[in-house]
């Protein structure tokens, strides 16, 4: 009875160990795909085909690259320029996707059964029967899934900071012809989809390199959907205690599995398995403590940030209100003030009122954007005349700081939310007055391109350190007072500008001028109307 119990315990421990090894292989497979996905996401849109061709030629992991448009179908490579049997097979294999019969969706397993065709000509219109198995990639252990999703979020966050203005979707499709597996990785930017097909043999070769050392008492076979053995690892001496354990590699490799054979020797390996389980539990406990510390630290930082925000808002509200009250009382009580002083005091009251209005609007916009309830009002406007009107309204504050404003560029008509553009430009002009007035110049340049219009707001101030440029659009981020010698503010203005533009499928970027004389903020608007 005792021997049977020990045998069962060691069997369970061994199978837990083999399951962990299997999960490591799955995670390794997802990591390889994630590396390819990230190499695709960072490709600039204006050099898309050039970079895809280089990846196709230089990367052993990539077999075929493509660009597909919802309006034009397959853009690259063009069907009329087929030059190899490999491209011909690629076109025929994925014709349901390339012809729009199957939508580009994440986490679907697609099986295609081709009907007999007597023609060898390149005709992608032949009939296919196919079936889609949805959400097959969701059946993964919670630990493995959270690791993969964390890496995906990190990739998307980095891409969001580098992307121009078009939302990005991505995924991979396990594609079966019969029982043979192909893998297609794709990125969607607006109506454009591009991606690559993985070179399956090289992918499996890298996967095999991740196999751990199984020792002398365990053997593992890597088996595909046809039950063909792709690779065998480990050594095994047959005995009466030889047992089997099969582990599916789905969703990393649907329908593939690792087939284990292992021997159990109570006296030699029971203690080792026990130590392994204890070590594994300790790792999970220490990992949980580490995550708890990180969560507590984040909660503390969030609370500190909110406290600083309330304190800064209170200070920023108090300053203009104090100035308005003081100069209003001077106007009320001083009967012998000259017209020049009265005009000066009224000007100060107006400027402080405008400052107060901007602050309140920023706080209200922050609240609406945070709740996702901001509403846009689009209309066609001629930007050149519209910006001149804004500059006229800001002339008093520009003259106060001895700043000369210039506007250059052609007549540009765009369909946009004029209130948003006005708020952003006023915020940028206010920042020039605060931080770059030493340059005495404000340049607004309009650039008209084929499918977009750009508004560059440039100054000739001291510029920004590189570390500040990377964080300038973060919520609550403020420039170091030692760099500016100005009030810190509340750190919402540029963050709100960024979120408002992203909500309109537009964007704003910041960079120092090449001649080291100030910096530029560039507003990227959408299609011209």
Which whole number gives the mean pLDDT?
77
State which percent range the strand residues make up. 15-25%
- Category by helix and strand content: alpha+beta
Tell me the count of domains. Answer: 4
Q: Give helix % range.
A: 40-55%
Backbone shape: elongated
**Distinct helical segment count:** 14
- Rg (CA only): 32 Å
Q: What does this entry look like structurally?
A:
The longest helix has 68 residues, at 266-333. This protein starts with a helix and ends with a strand. The radius of gyration is 32 Å and the shape is elongated. With 529 residues, it is of the alpha+beta class. Residues 115-127, 135-150 and 481-487 have low confidence and may be disordered. Helix 1 packs across helix 7 (266-333), helix 7 runs antiparallel to helix 8 and helix 8 crosses helix 14. The chain folds into four domains: 2-207, no CATH class; 218-264, no CATH class; 265-373, Helix Hairpins (Orthogonal Bundle), CATH 1.10.287.130; 375-526, Histidine kinase-like ATPase, C-terminal domain (Heat Shock Protein 90, 2-Layer Sandwich), CATH 3.30.565. It has 14 helices and 18 strands. The strands form four sheets. Strands 2-1-7-6-5-3-4 form a seven-stranded mixed sheet, sandwiched between helices. A five-stranded mixed sheet has the order 13-15-16-18-17, with helices on one face.
